[in-house]
Amino acid sequence: MFVATGQDAASAIENCSGQLTGNYDQSSGDLTLSLFIPSAITGSIGCGTAFPTQRETLALLGCRGTAKIWAFAEIMMAFALALDLALWF
Q1: Which one of 27, 42, 57, 83 is at 20 to 30 Å from 66 when CA atoms are compared?
Q2: Model pTM?
Q3: Which residue ranges in the chain fall short of pLDDT 50?
């Protein structure tokens, strides 16, 4: 996902240093998971995002251009949370 959207592959290490925490509410039976990534580095313009395949991937996600960086960051963090959750099962 990181390389497919044109992100700097050298920043992958900074982006993967997160802390996953969980909270289980016994009264409601709800499990809440939170992923804290203190240095999430993402971009939707410039560098590798200009390559055709990476540009197309960002467009498919609806995150191409300067006004879409927050939406893109949310997608990347949800992806990271899903990966961490997948490791539990």
Answers
A1: 83
A2: 0.74
A3: none
